Amino acid sequence: MDYLSEIEGKQAHDPMFLEKMKESSSSSSSCLCVPGPVIVGAGPSGLATAACLKEKGVPSVILERSNCIASLWQLKTYDRLRLHLPKQFCELPLMGFPTGFPTYPSKQQFVDYLEAYARKFDIKPRFNETVSQAEYDPTLGFWRVTSVGVKGKEMEYVCRWLVVATGENAEAMMPEMEGMGEFSGDIRHTSLYKSGEEFRGKRVLVVGCGNSGMEVCLDLCNHNARPSLVVRDTVHVLPQEMLGTSTFGLSMWLLKWFPLRLVDRFLLIVSWLMLGDTARFGLARPHLGPLQLNNLSGKTPVLDVGTLAKIKSGDIKVRPSIKSLKRHAVEFVNGTTENFDAIILATGYKSNVPSWLKEKVMFSEKDGYPRRPFPNGWKGEYGLYAVGFTKRGLLGTSMDAIRIAEDIQRCWKEEAKHRLAFTNSLLHQSSSL
């Protein structure tokens, strides 16, 4: 019962608190009091928050359902993946990328960077622990976090602060399509796609025209497959670089001097000069500019890495939305039908927060995102925080992690003062007896 003595030091003035803990601990298989925050998720968001906390002298515990850090990057991404933004916009707080890394690091280089980051700050997540429930106990004034291990053993963590770092990409989104059970070919999400090598010579339909869908199509082309791309909606395609610099970096610089509307207009003019009219190839642009659309909906523009040239040459065919699947074919909404050997679903990911966090104020039950928009969605009530839900990539993650660490450090120092005052009071009382 070591955890009771830990909590007693914080809440010794409240006997009801201790009675409640003693009652609950008898029904729990294992229980641990965490002096600092519990962080759920050992991806870049969880690592960044733990590092910022450690730098401020606040310990933390990271719970990770997989067997490694950054499991999405290590286990659920394709081989040719590189960071879509320059490395200076993707580094985590307190540690930059090695100077020898290219402008756009590869998947393995980014994983190596994250592992070095964890080593530098001595971050050791508790792997293979899936959080099944987290709930604030108003009687205790603490969060109770239940995890399930590999062999089904439950563990309860009691903590003053809870950081949700499971992110925007916790679960693959699998759309429902008529006839999915009838299609005889391979249907898989991009989280299970590694390389176009296994699809060499095959007719592959890629559903989804975001950055992943576009890049998977290019990878299939490079492995002599015959890909087609389903474009269900409008999309902004921008060159990865403009005027000798990254499009993203140029946008950030222009926004310091000009209103968003003018920057959007500039980006579209330069894109038209460099890429031509993408609507001619089945890639119609939205009415809103790329930056405005991203701010309002979180929908990021596609940064072209060579896919558009393959579409222009006819190596990649653009197709409309799917109406239904047949045994060996796909029927599209325009009435045409084509045979395919496989379907790759580049349909994105979603948050899984509502499935385990028993809280309805900070997080939306509909989409699992903080209800308050950026930059105010990082902090909730009763010591609840969110990191990595900004829809602004690793740059947004770093901003969240820094804010959270500063806020928890302030609370940590205040509570330390109270504990010290209480201890001094006890010592004074004992000395006067």
TrEMBL record:
It is an enzyme of class 1 (oxidoreductase). Its EC number is 1.-.-.-. Its cofactor is FAD. It comes from the Eukaryota. It catalyses: indole-3-pyruvate + NADPH + O2 + H(+) = (indol-3-yl)acetate + CO2 + NADP(+) + H2O. SUPFAM superfamilies: FAD/NAD(P)-binding domain (SSF51905). The keyword DNA damage does not apply. Pathway: Plant hormone metabolism; auxin biosynthesis. Keywords: Auxin biosynthesis, FAD, Flavoprotein, Monooxygenase, NADP, Oxidoreductase. GO terms for molecular function: monooxygenase activity. InterPro entries: Auxin_biosynth/cation_transpt, FAD/NAD-bd_sf, Flavin_mOase-like. The keyword Flavoprotein applies. Belongs to the FMO family. This is Flavin-containing monooxygenase.
